[in-house]
Amino acid sequence: MDNFTFRNPTKIIFGRGAEKQVGAECAVFGSPILLHYGGGSIKKSGLYDTITASLKDAGVEFVELAGVKPNPRLSLVKEGIAICREKGVKLILAVGGGSVIDSSKTIAAGVPYDGDVWDFFTFKGEPQEALPVGTVLTIPAAGSESSNGCVINNEDGDLKRAFDSDHIYPHFSALNPEAAFTLPDYQVACGTADIIAHLMERYFTNTKRVELMDRLIESAIKTVINNVHAVLETRDDYDSWAEIMWSGTLAHNNLLNTGRQGDWASHDIEHELSAVYDVAHGAGLAVIFPAWMKHVYKHDVDRFAQFAVRVFDVDHSFFSPEKTALEGIKRLTELFKSMGLPVNLEGLGITDDRFEEMAAKCTTYGPVGHFVPLDKYGVEAVYRLAAASEG
Ligand code: NZQ
Ligand code: ZN
To answer: 183 CB under 6 A from ligand 1?
Structure first.
């Protein structure tokens, strides 16, 4: 096990009615706050009314910025920074999924920064401070509600880039599983695939003797798998959503990578798809992750076989370690398919071949991934495997 320091400062308020506490949570920081949200789902569901009532009850004044798109755009971030500076905003309240939360985090870091906020994404600058962020989560998926990362699309150059900073951990996040009751099937599936991907990125490691984290990751993946079909069938199954929502937070709050180094190539490779084709992140991962696995499994067949046996109950007494490993990858693809997700690039609507260009962009700062570092040619090979996967 590697040395580590672990601290996750986000206060989690979990359960029915959690969103009604945000007024009191925000009041601590003063007024006005920026209420930031997406394309309107929170108005349809009634969450907007609950949140604004909670803010008014607590005497919190707010200004609003709506319109965050999935794959959140830099242009709206810049608008948000200007509003916050002009109005003297004290906190940003993100109500939505990963896109709204990431837009909020980037605005928060950009407000006190003199340069161009995009500098954070190109390693030209590092946040030294940020406005506080609070969140009300509406989709279990990205884990941004208690992560120190954020991901933004820059329309100029079809770029999607991320940065990490301890200054952007949300101060609080309200998680009510009922918020997920209004999700469309496709977003349920995309969110769940992202959660599984966050767990697998951490699982495939070269660090030896990491049994506790291996077992926690395996049980988190199994928990998500055990509950996803229930919520696809019965959207208001509170208890199944509660399992998925809490798994989604734990999958990405950095607890499960303590003492080990994860991989993360699949995320970098997927981000290029979301940048160029504007595909949903989770759907892109459902296609890229199995392709990445096929590309790298020979690096540590035993780890892939362990994954197959412990997560997908593959009976290894009938198979060689290699066949066991491959059977695990097959069952992962079958799982994604059963959730209604695409299994190849064509299923994502991608029929042209921009693999070389995307692979070059993906490796701008050098090879991606730690389990097996992939250069431009390795990344291109993963795209080709993703294109060739059978639907
Ligand atoms: O915009 P609205 O109208 O709210 O609709 C959204 C959006 O269209 C809808 N939605 C969300 N909650 C809903 C709902 N519709 C009905 N009922 C609800 N309760 O779902 C759509 C997708 O929302 P989005 O926020 O994009 O989803 P997600 O949470 O999957 O976030 C994806 C983004 O997070 C980034 C991804 O790259 C992507 O940009 N990630 C962020 C991470 C982080 N900051 O730590 C890590 C992840 O790996 C990921 O990269
Ligand atoms: Zn992700």
So the answer is: yes
Kindly report, residue by residue over 2-38, the tens digit of the pLDDT.
999 999 999 999 999 999 999 999 999 999 999 999 9
Those residues with Cβ within 8 angstroms of residue 125's Cβ, 6 or more apart along the chain or in another chain: 113, 115, 119
CA 317 to ligand 2 centroid distance, Å: 34
CA–centroid distance, residue 273 to ligand 2 (Å): 13
β-strand partners of 14 = 175
317: tokens are 């007494």
Q: Could you write out the DSSP letters of every residue in 53-112?
A: HHHHHTT--EEEE--PPSS-BHHHHHHHHHHHHHHT--EEEEEESHHHHHHHHHHHHHTT
What is the rounded distance in angstroms from the CA atom of residue 99 to the CA atom of residue 84? 19
Residue 83 near ligand 1, beta carbon < 6 Å: no
pLDDT tens digits along 323-348: 999 999 999 999 999 999 999 999 99
Answer yes or no: is the C-beta of 70 below 6 A from any ligand 1 atom. yes
Is the CB of 306 within 6 Å of ligand 1?
no
Block residue for tokens 């959690």:
18
Q: Give yes or no for residue 147 CB within 6 A of ligand 1.
A: yes
Q: How far apart are CA 35 and CA 154, in angstroms?
A: 22
For the stretch 196-207, pLDDT in tens is 999 999 999 999
